[in-house]
What we know:
The protein has five helices and nine strands. By secondary structure, it is α/β, with parallel strands linked by helices. The chain has a single domain, classed as Glutaredoxin. The model has no long low-confidence stretch (mean pLDDT 95).
Amino acid sequence: MLSEKTKAPDFELLDENGAPHKLSDYAGAPLILYFYPKDDTPGCTTEACGFRDDYSAFEKVNARIVGVSTDSVKSHKKFKEKYGLPFPLLSDADHKVVELYGVWGEKKMMGKKYMGILRTTYLIDKNGKIAKVFEGVKPAEHSREVLEALKAL
């Protein structure tokens, strides 16, 4: 896990249309970089739709939102279209960025251990520094929680 006040590492990933996105493309405005486990699952859908529903509030403060998971570009395209998500979803199929950001780790479900994305959001300020790290995110409340943190920037 990366810590607050450090420079967010740059990366390049493809979005749901196969277009490349770099972290540095978002310099000059706050960025909500959220890592989620899997497209079209209950928690991830709740989290994404929360950001979608509050999108105009994020736009008012000039903040950008980008979702990242290890799902494919094709999977992201379906997920984005199904729920009308107004922000890019980036595919990290080779796990480079999730590992770079420290959000790939051991999880447990019904007594079984497995590796996966630890639901985490980084609020990155306009200068590319990590302003806040949200771990153990509760999907239904998360968008509002990030909006409150943005006001403190």
